Amino acid sequence: MSALLIINIASLAGIHAKDTLQLKGTAMAELPEIKNAWLLCKDGLIADFGTMENIPSGLLDSIPTVSANGGYVLPSWCDSHTHVVFAAPREEEFVMKIQGKSYEDIAAAGGGILNSARKLQIATEDQLFESASARLHDMILQGTGAVEIKSGYGLSLDSEIKMLRVIKRLRETFPIAVKSSFLAAHAFPQEYKNDHEGYIRLIIDKMLPQIAEEGLADYMDVFCEQGFFSVEETSRLLDAGAKYGLPPKIHANQLSVCGAVETGVKHNAVSVDHLEVTDDAAIESLAGSNTIATLLPSCSFYLNIPFANARGLINAGIPVAVATDFNPGSTPSGNMNFVVSLSCIKLRMLPAEAINAATINGAAAMQLSDQVGSIAIGKKANLMITRPMPSLAYLPYSFGQSQIKIVILNGRIYDGRP
Ligand SMILES: N=CN[C@@H](CCC(=O)O)C(=O)O
Ligand SMILES: [Zn+2]
Prior knowledge:
The protein contains 16 helices and 16 strands. By secondary structure, it is of the alpha/beta class.
């Protein structure tokens, strides 16, 4: 049996009933906490917690103990939308953007996703694993304790499989849950520019069967956007994914309104992600559905595009999650602390709403909220211990600085060794 006792916690925050799997409406602003607390981890799970005044006698003498020294303890961040497997950064496009080119201009000129695909096709699986491992390691030190990772820079049978195998290796290597989304429908490769049907057939007839046979993906993703995949193409691809048991998680309403959110909802998507262009129709179709709206404020920040209408979504009773979107083109950052700060500063979410969106609702957007995302007995002991803070609001307020002092995964202090 392994055990770890955390004592002197100024506030143990994010305590939700174990069967609370997601939060919406006014419940998103509730982040129940216990002041002056202790928490016991046993065999990788949260075994018990309470106030220091009532700590069971004998616990302190018998269990290895770490003092939070007046810091907060929160559930680890659950980053439900990333593209951390890529071959090379794209800082040259960063400069082009400063000079006035838009994301769409760069993509149309053969940059963007196709630029990343060219580089990924010549990278080995080991090279991709090494570079993605370094990114994931940094993300864990920044508090991330569960992550979703997409393919989508392969755009050929071999390279998509190569990416998905790297994601599988990351899952087997790191002590955090890793979910995998199949995103061959990220862009049309150059050779299929005028043959959309050919590429869609390649995805449906060749890629999906092999990926399903190897069990390489949990979700089906499509970049449903003008100039990328149309609503009709997206529908066909989501239907095909469903035949192999892959529920949708899609890129929707990032750059324009084209019915992407409604298409995701129609196909019972686990989440529709981005929504920088949040029109009334998108809010209407999400309200009353089971689909989570995953917002990616670091992408808006980096691309200088509008921020999603988080308040409209929350007020309509839609569960909102936030995630990094870490990728080389639109969001070269995997820092969930910055996402939580932006959620408050730019999405106008309250600190408690932003933290719930980055923990329990992020977990729900990966169908993991029965295991992670909140403080509850029986859930994984994936936690962060902060420096002493005057209040919870200090965490997003102190943007750009990390308040995290100790990361605990599966009840053990993460020491950087995968
Ligand atoms: N929008 C589509 N995919 C990524 C960007 C991919 C890229 O530019 O490399 C995103 O989520 O922002
Ligand atoms: Zn994305």
